[in-house]
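Sample entry was shown:
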Amino acid sequence: MSVAAGGRAGVEVFDPVPPGVLEYPLVQYIPLPVRTLLEVAAPPALPGLAHLPDAAALARACSALGAAAPAWDGARITLLLAGATVGRCLYRAERAALLGAIRPGLIQILTVPRGRIYKDRVLFLLFAADGGVACRCEVTGARL
């Protein structure tokens, strides 16, 4: 995310979405706020994405990373992302586009709210800067 140059104070604009990421016009997507729970340095790895479905899975992942587990929030979907960082999520139907940057030496645990999701199955796709899919993860039972 970048702040508009010469714009009003407090007004934020997002960097453009890479070509080929969205199947429909941007206005048809629901932005899901991304909350980062944990970012840690890790050995360089190809991008990977996994769903952490419950507090026990979050605790195991954090323990493996040598970090304390943050509080579990069942109203949010929790994802573990290796080799990249995400700052923006756009949702429509059964697909959520994760936009960020490939960062091979980083692991991020992030959450997005379930309250705006209206399908039980959502495919989360991490897109590279060129618009290609870097990794994916399917979440079932995504709706509240």
User: Anything to note?
Assistant: The CA atoms of residues 92 and 128 lie 19 Å apart. The longest strand covers residues 95-113. The helical segments are 55-64.
